[in-house]
Specification:
By secondary structure, this protein is of the alpha+beta class. It has helices spanning 2-14, 32-42, 55-64, 86-95, 125-129, 139-146, 174-177, 189-199, 224-229, 231-246, 256-268, and strands at residues 23-26, 46-49, 71-75, 79-81, 99-107, 117-118, 157-158, 161-162, 166-170, 203-214. The protein starts with a helix and ends with a helix.
Length: 269
């Protein structure tokens, strides 16, 4: 509860100059007493309680159905805003009709940069980045490609996808994109959402002018027997399979718009 309270407090602190509505989606099916307890600490935020765990995509979509603003800021409860520059990002998005999704810079509690923007995965990316095969010769090259190690992440640029834990979405484009694909219970829903945007000739842009603190460690990054026992890792593998099956094992969008955008981004990186 403390994480949620602090997240909501940071929103109120840094976005007090614009009209906002704060929706807190509970995916845990809390009892009436627990809902009252949450409501007491959330202030003006509106609590939405799902009947059960809908998964990440299902939870986001349940909140989207209740949202009314011109922009939607999807934010994990263990995240904190550190500035109000997200308003400037939205102003910039207003000027570019094809700009659909933006992602801020994400750091941990010690201000270490987190890989919140990445390139689309290939069929073998997961094995070379998050398994014992990461020690193979050449694996580091794929890791660098996927995590965009060639990009300093201090200037804005078009990217393949941004983390769904801190994502700014133009509500107007949701008429065409729809919400997140609920076939993914956990993981890959943000990759899929951004890919759907590119395939519909919309842009996804990483914007480091605004910074978010994200606590914790990625639950699926483990190796050996511990990884096999990790439910998060298993969900990740299942979602990867669904993702590649959905796109018929193609690793990049079949979109001339996307290819041209990436060429521009690469030439300026």
């Amino acid at each position: 509860m403390d994480q949620v309270k602090n997240c909501v407090r940071s929103i109120g602190e840094y976005l007090d100059d614009v009209e906002t509505e704060c929706l807190v989606l509970s995916n845990s099916g809390y009892s009436v007493d627990e809902q009252v307890q949450y409501s007491e600490v959330l202030g003006d935020a509106k609590l939405i309680t799902a009947p059960g765990n809908l998964g990440y995509a299902g939870g986001v979509n349940a909140a989207l159905a209740k949202a009314h603003g011109e922009y939607v800021y999807v934010l994990n409860p263990d995240c904190l805003l550190t500035d109000g520059d997200v308003v400037g990002i939205m102003d910039d998005m207003d000027k570019i009709p094809e700009w659909a999704i933006a992602g801020p810079k994400v750091v941990d509690e010690d201000d270490n940069l987190q890989p919140s923007c990445r390139r689309f995965p290939k069929l073998w990316t997961f094995l070379l980045v998050r398994s014992v095969f990461a020690r193979l010769p050449g694996a580091s090259r794929e890791r660098s490609r996927y995590l965009m190690s060639d990009y300093g992440k201090e200037t804005p640029r078009e990217v393949d996808w941004v983390s769904g834990g801190a994502t700014i979405v133009k509500r107007e484009v949701l008429k065409h994109l729809g919400g997140m694909d609920e076939r993914y219970f956990l993981y890959m829903e943000d990759v899929d959402w951004c890919r759907a945007a590119w395939q519909s000739d919309y842009k996804v842009i990483y914007c480091p002018s605004s910074k978010v603190i994200h606590a914790g460690h990625h639950q699926s990054i483990q190796s050996g027997l511990q990884a096999v026992r990790n439910i998060h890792l298993r969900w990740h593998i299942i979602s990867l399979f669904k993702y590649f099956l959905k796109y018929r094992w193609r690793t990049r969008p079949r979109s001339q718009f996307y290819r041209e955008a990436m060429e521009r981004a690469e030439s300026g990186s």
